[in-house]
Amino acid sequence: MAVSIHSSVPLQCAVEVYDEADIVVVGGGPAGTAAAISGARCGKKVVLLEHSGQLGGMGTLGNVSVFMGVGNVTGIYREMVSEVLPDHLPQSHEGSIWPQYSPFELRHYLNTKLEREAIKVYYHTSFVAAAMEGDTVTGVIANTRQGLKAFLGRTVLDCTGDARVAQDAGVPIRTGRSEDGLTQPMTLMFMMQNTGKPVKPYLPDDCYYYETVDELPQGRNLYWERNDNGTLLVNMTRVKGNGAMIEDINFAEKESLRQVFSVANYLQRNGFETYVLSHVPGQVGVRETNQIEGLYTLTENDVTGGRRFEDVVAQTNYEIDIHSPDGRKGTDERHVSGYDIPYRCMIPISVKGLLVAGRSISATHVAMSSMRIQATCYALGQAAGIAAACAIDDGVDLAQVPISRLHERMQEQGVKFLK
Ligand SMILES: Cc1cc2nc3c(=O)[nH]c(=O)nc-3n(C[C@H](O)[C@H](O)[C@H](O)COP(=O)(O)OP(=O)(O)OC[C@H]3O[C@@H](n4cnc5c(N)ncnc54)[C@H](O)[C@@H]3O)c2cc1C
Asked: Which DSSP category does 3 fall into?
């Protein structure tokens, strides 16, 4: 029977409760992994549900492979750098680092790290719907390898990057630029490997033959060379669209791969004559989709004005970095000297029992372009896990967590705020 896309199908069924925890984290990217670790370190039972087969989010799944600098290397992010990239660890928190890393090693490291913290990670488990009691989120229903299962929690942390849980729970969502809703484009990042001898450039029939830099999808070369192992990390594809929309992501997966072969072919003819395509991740990288409406919305003025907040939970000086959302080639890059992100950006209006950490916090399109990078998402996740534990311990709503208590416990976990 053909089903029109405008019709609807009722779904009503009882779903088995598979697990219960103090904190249910949905999404295992930078925000989700840090939230799980920090919650567990506060003595809470934590489960993490991850849609894919790996942790690390865009940092591994999307092959991002570089930690951009934030000017405050602190908390769990600092600990990770000290364990995975000790040569890059700055002596003081204030140092800025931009290390390249192996996404394969980070993936393995995160598996082991969460195992050591006794966090139960459910891989291949995708959020489907929020379980609600009135205006309070009490758990989630997820699609697992054994069908739909429920995971109940005293607090749920939405770290999906797309605010999927918040959206389903009825939190108002904003998307992209205020004038037209367009989001930053998607990019399939790939790797090439130096073979040490000339290779024959490869180009499938339906790909593009780029002659000049101007013709490239971003109109520029953007790659990182590693002299120690001969890999080249390439960030040069670009597909317009919103990665949280079915038709946009369908198009982007095919178009971005076409661009991968085309850019690799261009590089093989322009300076990288001895390199072969060596790694293409399983999914396109998504920079921007949904932002929740939270108790506070971070703005461009906060970012450019270096605003400080009493309820600071993360600090960054990463630039405003907007890959053109409208199909043009440019990137709007503007220096930022450093600002705070307040706790209230993670607290959704209108719903209790839920925090949103990572790139989909309450922020405008421009502010989000600066706060979206990995170190900041790890910092926000760490704060969310601790805030969840504080709320449980004190028997208060997430919005009522005393900031002094939150800061005290963040400090106990190695977080330092710079003046
Ligand atoms: C092309 C590109 C280049 C970038 N370059 C850099 C860079 O050089 N340096 C840098 O620091 N940052 C960079 N970033 C930004 C950074 O990688 C992301 O903004 C950051 O990873 C966001 O972290 P997050 O935890 O909020 O979300 P994500 O990393 O998106 O992780 C979300 C996780 O949730 C899971 N998930 C999603 N939906 C569901 C669901 N329904 N159920 C269960 N799980 C779900 C996903 O599988 C994923 O694991 C780049 C991003 C892109 C796309």
From this structure: -
